[in-house]
Amino acid sequence: TSFGFKEVPEEEKSKLVGNVFSSVASNYDLMNDLMSGGLHRLWKDRFVSELTPFPGMKHLDVAGGTGDVAFRILEKVNSISRRALRHDPAEVLNDETQIYVCDINPNMLNVGKKRAVERGLGESQSLKWVEGDAEALSFEDNSMDGYTIAFGIRNVTHIEKALAEAHRVLKRGGRFLCLEFSRVDIPILKELYDLYSFSVIPAVGELVAGDRESYQYLVESIRRFPPQDKFAAMIADAGFQKVQYENLVGGAVAIHSGLKI
Ligand code: SAM
Description:
The chain is of the alpha/beta class. The protein contains ten helices and seven strands.
């Protein structure tokens, strides 16, 4: 179904995504809360609870500009460290844990850095902000214990390349986790969701952020993204084992996971 939207040629996609997120960056938090009714916070909590962070881990959060996922991971690691070692928190923050936040858009990274300060994590040596493309990561092979990507992979031009890169940088035993909008297939809920995404989201985008087009693009990109089973098959094709997914809100959002063995 085209849903009345134009096909976006592949070569234009990267540029378009860049523009969208530059324009969206400053309103990002407010818009996320508005559009999801605050639910994105719970989805991210659930997402990070799927990961088993540990002190000293090396983790990569791709498309993580706002820091939302990285902060949750670091806070979990810090609370484990504090509990286990009964250390002074300042000392614990200096442990070997490294959480890389990689994003293609420097504006989004700046939003994240600002928010790290607001969250009291500004001084943390564990957070590293890296500008980079999910399709061509600057990290070494077999170097990460975990890889996360939240609401990012559908914006990547070649999903297969991003998955191959995720697999490459993970160590054996490393976990891949992806949080992304997906397909609602439950009647009535599906109709409501369609109405919401095609009418309400662009209207709110225009009203609050003064940018209908960007939000229309976001809705369209959700529809283009492969449904749960197809995406799971792509993750397996990239070499991951034990590929699974869990639907949230009837499939409006899904958490996919895989293991590099
Ligand atoms: N993970 C954050 C969250 O859940 O709040 C941010 C999600 S935001 C909807 C999508 C992010 O993907 C943007 O920050 C954008 O700059 C980034 N992005 C888009 N294409 C990318 C790519 N090829 N490589 C890395 N990041 C990319």
